[in-house]
Amino acid sequence: MSHVASFSKSQGGRCPALSSSIGRKWTVAVSGVLLVLFVIGHMLGNLTFYGGPDWINAYAEHLQGLGIFLWVIRLGLLAIVATHITFTILLWHENMRAKPAKYAVQAKLETSIYARSMRLSGLTVLAFIIFHIVDLTWQGLHPETRGWVDPQGRHDVYRMMVAVFSSPLVSGFYILAVGLLAMHLSHGIASLFQTLGLTSLTMRPRYEFAARVIGWVLFAGFASIPLSVLLGLKVCQAATACPLCH
C-alpha cells in the first residue's frame, strides 16, 4: 500500500501515459492515424460528386439517416481533433525548452519545408475545418441552400456544392487549405511511423515518399471538385432539376 500511495503522490494524480513525453507522442500518433483515416473516407465520400446529383445526394441522405449516431461521430471527431492539437502543442513547448538556442539555425536548415510549416498548416487547416462546418455542414453562410431539394425530396447537396464553389474566393480558400493539409500530412504521416517505433534509417525515406504521395493524392481529390466547378466541368444528370447546371 505504501508503494501505491508513494507512486500516486509522485504522479500528482495524473495518468502516467499522458504525463510522460512518450505517452504524449503516442496520443498524437494515434489521434493522427484516426484523423488520416477520416480524411481519406471524407474524400471518397466527396468524390461521389462526380457521379452526379443522385450519387452525392443519396450519400448525404445516408449520412443523415444515421441520426444520433452521426452526432456521436461528429463529437468524437471534434474530441480527436482537440486532443491532437492539445498534445501537439504540449510536445512543441517541451521540445522548445529542451532544444538549445544555438542549434536553432542549424535545425531549421536540416528540416524540410513540410516539417517547418507544420504549425502554420495545422492552424490553417483548423480554421478551414471551422469554416467548412459552418458553410457546408450547417449552411450558415448560405441559409437558402437548406431548402433546396432534388426530385426525390432529398437535400440537394450537389446543387449546394455547385453554388458554394462557384465563388472563386471560397474555392480559392478551399484549395489553399487542402494544399496545406497535404503538406501537413506529408510530414505528419511519416512522423507517425517514427513515433510508433515502426521505422529505421532504411525505411524512413520510403515512409516519407509514401506520406507525400498520400498527402498530394488527397489534395488532388479534394481540390478537383472546386476546380471542376470553376472550370465548368461539373457533371449533372438531365433528370435533376438544377438550374445552375442547365
The gist of it:
This protein has 11 helices and no strands. The chain has 246 residues and is mainly alpha-helical. The protein has one domain (16-230): 3 helical TM bundles of succinate and fumarate reductases (Up-down Bundle).
Write the layout of secondary structure elements.
Elements: H1 2-11, H2 16-19, H3 21-46, H4 53-64, H5 68-98, H6 104-110, H7 113-116, H8 118-137, H9 157-165, H10 168-195, H11 204-230
Helix pairs in contact: 3-5, 3-10, 3-11, 8-10, 10-11
Provide an overview of this structure.
It is a single chain. This protein is an all-alpha fold and 246 residues long. The chain has a single domain (16-230), classed as Fumarate reductase/succinate dehydrogenase, transmembrane subunit (3 helical TM bundles of succinate and fumarate reductases, Up-down Bundle), CATH 1.20.1300. The protein is 72% helix and 0% strand. The chain is built from eleven helices and no strands. The protein has helices at 2-11, 16-19, 21-46, 53-64, 68-98, 104-110, 113-116, 118-137, 157-165, 168-195, 204-230. The longest helix is centred in the middle third of the chain and has 31 residues, at 68-98. The protein is elongated. It starts with a helix and ends in a 16-residue tail after the last helix.
